[in-house]
Design brief:
Layout lengths: L1 E5 L4 E2 L2 E2 L8 E4 L15 E4 L15 H15 L5 E3 L8 E2 L5 E2 L5 H20 L1 H4 L3 E6 L4 H13 L6 E4 L12 H17 L4 E5 L4 H12 L4 E6 L1 H6 L3 E3 L13 E3 L12 H22 L3 E2 L3 E2 L4
Parallel strand pairs: 1-4, 1-12, 4-5, 5-6, 6-9, 9-10, 10-11, 11-12
Antiparallel strand pairs: 2-3, 7-8, 13-14, 15-16
Length: about 300
């Protein structure tokens, strides 16, 4: 499992927040201006599309505008991303009249339009691939039911190439609505063999931070020789509230991470600083995935187990 740490700002409670000094894998978003505290050529950057953030006011861009925003952001920050995400249409976030988001799925009728838009976004990025090299494409997928989701994946696979990544969107909701976990695994069980038959070697989970889900995902993916990855800002966000990454599987935080509440509000700045604990949580997560990769390396059906390259 590869963990792309979300960096949405340069400071956390007034201290420099630079996870790129701990890891070479970052998830950046064109909606958030940041600086890099490490040479950009040493960092593998997954550049999101900003589609999730655009939900708030339903201010959708055209596919061309969304891509221009990503490329302009690269120039402003000073990097060329390793992975570039298509501008999908999110199905598990609903805006309210006041412009706030709710963690709930859109209606079946609305989802059909959203899925069609998601497929078209993938097609647009695929059609632009020659001009976008050396970036690799993450072609995102959506759906409110497993069948609808798989239909979306099948259409996206038609325009994919082996170096592309199949992005699994629409499941960040399982941290707050666990009942959708079953749907997620129904989708994953069908996506992995489809991806393998199409020569795809990577899948990426957007915003899924539930450790027990990610661990099972890793073990499922390694059987197909597919590298899984995910991004989340949960470890940073929860550190603000005094929560520490814990092996206690019975203590699951609101974002689905195994976090233990260690400090109180009164302890903030007296016994802990959120930036320091965020950085520690990130280190602990990376250490966990390193050890799990050793235990469950990628499996090649012809040659048995082999290390991830």
């Amino acid at each position: 499992m590869e963990y792309y740490v979300s960096k949405n700002h340069d400071r956390l409670n007034e201290r420099v927040f630079a996870p790129e000094t701990l890891t070479d894998k970052l998830c950046l978003n064109p909606k958030y201006r940041v600086t890099l505290n490490r040479p950009s050529e040493q960092v593998n950057i997954l550049l999101d599309s900003g589609a999730f953030q655009d939900i708030k006011q339903e201010q959708r861009l055209t596919f061309h505008e969304a891509l221009d925003r990503q490329l302009e952001y690269e120039k402003q920050v000073g990097f060329v991303s390793k992975f570039l995400v298509s501008y999908d249409r999110i199905v598990d976030e609903s805006p309210t009249v006041q412009g706030k988001r709710l963690k709930r799925r859109v209606s079946k009728g609305k989802s059909e339009r959203y899925v069609e838009e998601t497929i078209n976004a993938a097609k647009f990025l695929s059609d632009s691939r020659r001009e976008l090299k050396p970036r690799r494409l993450i072609l995102s997928n959506q759906g409110v039911t497993p069948d609808q989701y798989i239909d979306c994946v099948k259409e996206v696979l038609r325009i994919s190439e082996p170096d592309d990544v199949i992005g699994l969107g629409g499941f960040c909701i399982i941290g707050q609505v666990p009942k959708f976990t079953d749907d997620y695994f129904q989708v994953l069980k069908k996506v992995l063999p489809l991806a393998k038959r199409n020569g795809i070697r990577r899948v990426h989970m957007f915003g899924v931070g539930v450790f027990k889900v990610l661990v099972k995902t890793h073990v499922m993916c390694q059987k197909y020789g597919i590298v899984p990855s995910y991004d989340t800002s949960s470890l940073e966000f929860n550190a603000v509230f005094g929560k520490v990454l814990s092996p206690d599987v019975e203590n699951i935080g609101p974002a689905g991470i195994h976090l233990r509440k260690v400090f109180t509000k009164e302890d903030k700045y007296e016994l802990y600083h959120p930036r320091d604990w965020a950085m520690l949580n990130i280190q602990m997560a990376n250490f966990f995935w390193e050890k799990l990769n050793d235990l469950y390396p990628l499996q090649d059906e012809n040659n048995g187990y082999r290390p991830i390259s």
